[in-house]
Amino acid sequence: KSFLNHTAYLSCYFPNSQKTDINDLRVFWQKGDVEVVHEVYYGQEKHDNLSPKYINRTKMDMDKWTLQLLNAGIMDEGQYRCIIQHRDKGSPKVIHTSECLLHIIANYSQPEIAWLHAGELKPNEYLSLSCSSSGGYPEPKQMTWLVSQENTTYRLMRHMDVSQDAVTKLYNVTSKLNITVPTNTLTNISCLLHLGEQLGSLVSVPLGI
C-alpha cells in the first residue's frame, strides 16, 4: 500500500544467497504483461525500453532489491513483476521472479454533518441531516449513523451516494438521514465512514439535539 503522491516501495524479495555480482544480472520490473517500469542491465540503468509514464519516476535500491516508484498515483495501481536474469555462458537465464500488488490510499476528509432543515425544530417533526466526506480512495464500504439517547446507541444504515471525480479518480460520499425530533431527551448523532478492514473508520463530530 502507498499513499497518493508519495513514494511506493516494491520489493523483489531476492535473497541473492549466491552473492551474485550485480554486473552479471539483468533486473527488470514490469506492470502487467507489456509495460516496462525499470531496467538495470548488467549493472547499468537502461531507459530504452521503459514505458513513457515511468521515465524519471523510478529508482532501484540494489542493496534491498526494492524499486521506489515516485509520486505514486491511482493509475499506478496494479500487479508488478520483478524478473532477474543471470548471464550464464552468454545466454541470460531467469533465476528469480516475484510479484506484488500495489494499492493506493488517499485520506478522506473527516465526515461532516449538515442540517437540511430551515426554521425551528418542533417535537415529533422530521429532522433531515446529511453527512459528507470527500477526496478519498479507494471507494469506502459504507456509512453508518449513530444515534445516542441516554444509555442506548442505535445504528442506522442508510443509502450512501458515491461519486468519483473523472480527473483525480478520488471519491466523494454522502448519506442522508430523516428522523423524528426527539422530545425531552438529549440526543447525540454521529456518522461513521467505514473504509474497510485494514483502513478502519472515520467519525464525525457529534451533533447534539
Can you characterise this structure?
The chain is mainly β and 209 residues long. The chain has 2 domains: 2-105, Sandwich (Immunoglobulin-like); 109-208, Immunoglobulins (Immunoglobulin-like, Sandwich), CATH 2.60.40. It contains no helices and 19 strands. The strands form 5 sheets. Strands 5-4-3-8-9 form a 5-stranded antiparallel beta sheet, with no helix packed on it. Strands 13, 14, 17, 18 and 19 form a 5-stranded antiparallel beta sheet that branches. A hairpin with a 6-residue loop joins strand 15 and strand 16 (171-180). The model has no long low-confidence stretch (mean pLDDT 89).
Compile the SSE list and pairings.
Elements: E1 2-3, E2 8-11, E3 25-31, E4 35-41, E5 44-45, E6 58-61, E7 66-69, E8 78-88, E9 91-102, E10 104-105, E11 112-115, E12 126-136, E13 142-149, E14 152-157, E15 160-164, E16 171-180, E17 187-194, E18 201-203, E19 207-208
Basic shape: elongated
CATH topology call of the largest domain: Immunoglobulin-like
- Helicity level: under 10%
**The CATH class of the largest domain:** Mainly Beta
Q: Domains counted in the coordinates: how many?
A: 2
Instruction: Give the percentage of residues in beta strands.
Output: over 45%
CATH-level-4 superfamily name of the largest domain: Immunoglobulins
Order of helices and strands: EEEEEEEEEEEEEEEEEEE
Low-confidence stretches: none
Please give the order of strands in the largest beta sheet: 5-4-3-8-9
Oligomeric state of the chains? single chain
* Major sheet characteristics: 5 strands, antiparallel
Number of strands: 19
Radius of gyration using CA atoms only: 26 Å
- The number of helical elements comes to 0
Class by helix and strand content? mainly beta
Mean pLDDT: 89
Cα distance, first to last residue?
Answer: 40 Å
Q: Per CATH, which architecture of the largest domain?
A: Sandwich
Subcellular location: Cell membrane
Protein name: T-lymphocyte activation antigen CD86
InterPro entries: CD80_C2-set, Ig-like_dom, Ig-like_dom_sf, Ig-like_fold, T-cell_Activation_Regulation
Membrane topology: Single-pass type I membrane protein
